[in-house]
Design a protein that fits this description.
With 263 residues, the chain is α/β, with parallel strands linked by helices. The chain contains ten helices and eight strands. The strands form two sheets. A six-stranded parallel β-sheet has the order 1-2-3-4-5-6, covered by helices on one side. Strands 7-8 form a two-stranded parallel ribbon. Strand 5, helix 5 and strand 6 form a beta-alpha-beta unit. Helix 3 packs parallel to helix 4, helix 4 crosses helix 5 and helix 9 packs parallel to helix 10. The chain starts with a strand and ends with a helix. It binds 6-hydroxymethylpterin-diphosphate (HH2).
Length: 263
């Protein structure tokens, strides 16, 4: 899944892709091997300010509409707002990627059911503005798994088809370095919950915490690839990445090695 942030303030690529540049970048990501594009009009980085619904729709919908006309791969909209998800699906998106796991608005689960789209339910402790202030868990792995199961059940109870649901541990969302590493080390346990898993570790801050040279987000591709490979080994269904060409190459080589393993 290639990331296309249509925001002025995303942590690693804010303000880079507006208007025609967005379409060019989308096509580049597909040529590099992206099988899904994830488009977002509101940054969820720690400390980010909320964006009004009309602004978010104006950022993402024209790009989704243009890409859908192009015959692009499946398009995902990264939003917590049901109105934005609705407008994105009407324009041609088929996946609602929600970092709040359908908790932002009370009607969100019903809207997801009505839209009939695929839904990514992500774990986050707290909310973006304050989530990194003091993350706390007794047992991060057990709590993230319990949360994801609870949100999947809530979505199913609202009428979302089970096979439309994806889960995501939410790397970096209300988590310390230890929390992130514990989740990355046990992704197999999240995969065992019985839903496809999406992993979003690309260019995140934990990489610089492990490797202090990687302060600039764009310098974190190697660490991002290491995390993507840990995800692939554990059985995740997709990785959400900025550096599509580099990640696709790493995954292809990893797959080829795996295919050559003897029983
Ligand atoms: N991470 C970000 C945004 N959306 N969605 C899912 N499902 N999983 C993630 O890990 C995830 C996500 C944050 O990264 P990015 O989009 O690059 O930055 P920003 O939120 O600043 O736009």
């Amino acid at each position: 899944m290639g990331i296309l942030n249509l925001t002025p303030d995303s942590f690693s690529d804010g303000g880079l892709y507006e208007g025609a540049a967005a379409l060019t970048q989308a096509r580049r990501l597909v040529a590099q091997g992206a099988e899904i594009l994830d488009l977002g009009g509101e940054s969820t980085r720690p400390g980010a300010d909320p964006v009004p619904v009309e602004v978010e729709i104006a950022r993402v919908v024209p790009v989704i509409a243009a890409l859908a006309k192009d015959g692009a791969p499946p398009l995902s909209v990264d939003t917590m707002k049901p109105e934005v998800a609705r407008a994105a699906m009407a324009a041609g998106a088929t996946i609602w990627n929600d970092v709040t796991a359908l908790r932002f608005a009370p009607e969100a689960p019903d809207v997801a059911a009505e839209l009939g789209c695929q839904v990514v339910l992500m774990h986050m402790q707290g909310e973006p503005r304050t989530m990194q202030a003091a993350p706390h868990y007794e047992d991060v792995l057990a709590e993230v798994c319990a949360f994801l199961v609870e949100r999947a059940e809530a979505a199913i109870a609202a009428g979302v088809a089970r096979e439309k649901i994806w889960l995501d541990p939410g790397i970096g969302f209300g988590k310390t370095l230890d929390h992130n590493l514990t989740l990355l080390a046990h992704l197999d346990r999240i995969c065992a919950l019985g839903f496809p898993v999406l992993l979003g570790a690309s260019r995140k801050r934990f990489i610089a915490a492990v490797h202090p040279g990687a302060e600039a987000p764009a310098a974190r591709a190697p660490g991002s690839i290491a995390a993507a490979l840990a995800g692939a080994e554990a059985g995740v269904a997709a990785v959400r990445v900025h550096d599509v060409a580099e990640t696709a190459q790493a995954l292809d080589v990893w797959s080829a090695i795996k295919a050559a393993r003897r029983p």
